[in-house]
Design a protein that fits this description.
Elements (H helix, E strand, L loop, with lengths): L1 E2 L17 E6 L5 E6 L5 H9 L3 E7 L19 H16 L3 E8 L13 E8 L4 E8 L7 E4 L6 H10 L6 E4 L13 E4 L2 H12 L7 E5 L7 H20 L5 H4 L2
Parallel strand pairs: 3-4, 3-5
Antiparallel strand pairs: 1-7, 2-4, 5-6, 6-7, 8-11, 9-10, 9-11
Helix pairs in contact: 1-5
Length: 258
C-alpha cells in the first residue's frame, strides 16, 4: 500500500549486542536471503509465500521484536504502527547483516488518525537495504478474534464465562492484567498465553490483588502463535505483500541478482 524510505538512524536495541543464529526455514538454499523478523511463529505462513518468490527465507533466532511494543502494554510502541513495522525489519537487517527483511505489526485498538473508520489493522513491512526500497501492505477489519472486558477473578462468574466463550478460549489463548493495557502496565503484572484453567485462575487472583476494584482485565492474547485467527490475518496480508513484491520485480532473476 505504501512505499517508505529506508531510514538508517541509530536506534538502541539490545538484540544488536548479541550474535543471532539464522535458521533456514523455507526456499532454495542458493536463493537471495530474506529475514522474517518474528518471535511468534509467523514464518509458518509467511515462509512459503517468500519461498515462492525464490527467496532463501531465514529466521533470526533470539531477535526481540517486543522491544518495539507489545499488545500487553508493558512495552509501549514508540511511534506509529507503520514506523514500528519498518523498524522491526530494519533492525533485523542491521543485527544480522542480511539486507532484506519482512516484519509485522498489528493495531487492534482503533486509531482513527492512521486507519479512519477501522477497528483494527494488520500490517506487513518489507525493507531492502541494498536497493534502498521498502514498502508496507496492510488490511483493516480482518476477522481476528479480539475481545476484552473487566471481569471478576472467578472462572465461574457469568461475566467471565461469557467473555471466555466470545474469545473462543482455550483455542485462542487469554491474557490477564490488572488494568486495560492501553494505559500501560508493568511487566510483572502481565500474564499471557493462558490456556488452562489453573494458570488462568491463578493469574486472575494475582491481578485482582493489584487492581483498585478487585476486578481484572481479561482479553484475547493477540500474539500470532497464541491466536490462530491472528495468524490467518497475517497470512492474508502476506499474500498481498508477496504480490506487491512480485510487481516490484522481486522473484525475477534480474532483481534477485541485483
Amino acid at each position: 500500500m505504501q512505499n517508505q524510505p529506508v531510514q538508517n538512524r541509530a536506534v538502541p536495541n539490545a538484540a544488536l549486542d548479541n550474535a543471532l543464529t539464522l535458521s533456514h526455514v523455507a526456499g532454495p538454499v542458493d536463493g537471495t536471503p530474506v529475514l522474517i523478523a518474528t518471535m511468534h511463529g509467523k514464518e509458518a505462513v509467511l515462509g512459503p509465500l517468500l519461498a515462492d518468490l525464490g527467496f532463501k527465507v531465514l529466521l533470526p533466532l533470539g531477535y526481540d521484536t517486543d522491544a518495539l511494543g507489545t499488545f500487553s502494554g508493558d512495552v509501549r510502541r514508540p511511534g506509529t504502527a507503520f514506523e514500528a513495522a519498518l523498524e522491526k525489519a530494519r533492525r533485523a537487517c542491521v543485527a544480522t547483516g542480511v539486507m532484506r527483511a519482512v516484519s509485522s505489526e498489528g493495531s487492534y485498538r482503533p486509531c482513527q488518525t492512521l486507519f479512519p473508520g477501522a477497528r483494527s489493522a494488520e500490517l506487513l513491512a518489507f525493507v531492502d537495504l541494498e536497493n534502498n526500497f521498502s514498502c508496507v501492505e496492510y488490511l483493516t477489519d480482518l476477522p481476528t478474534r479480539f475481545v476484552k472486558g473487566r471481569v471478576p477473578p472467578d472462572l465461574g462468574a457469568p461475566e467471565t464465562q461469557a467473555l471466555l466463550s466470545a474469545m473462543d478460549w482455550p483455542s485462542v489463548k487469554a491474557m490477564v492484567v490488572p488494568f486495560d493495557p492501553g494505559f500501560g502496565v508493568l511487566p510483572t503484572q502481565v500474564f499471557k498465553g493462558l490456556g488452562d484453567e489453573a494458570a488462568l485462575a491463578q493469574a486472575m487472583l494475582e491481578c485482582a490483588a493489584q487492581s483498585s476494584d478487585g476486578l481484572v482485565h481479561l482479553e484475547t492474547d493477540l500474539r500470532a502463535h497464541m491466536n490462530p485467527t491472528r495468524m490467518a490475518s497475517v497470512a492474508k496480508v502476506g499474500k498481498h505483500l508477496s504480490e506487491r513484491l512480485r510487481r516490484e520485480g522481486y522473484g525475477l532473476p534480474a532483481r534477485l541478482a541485483a
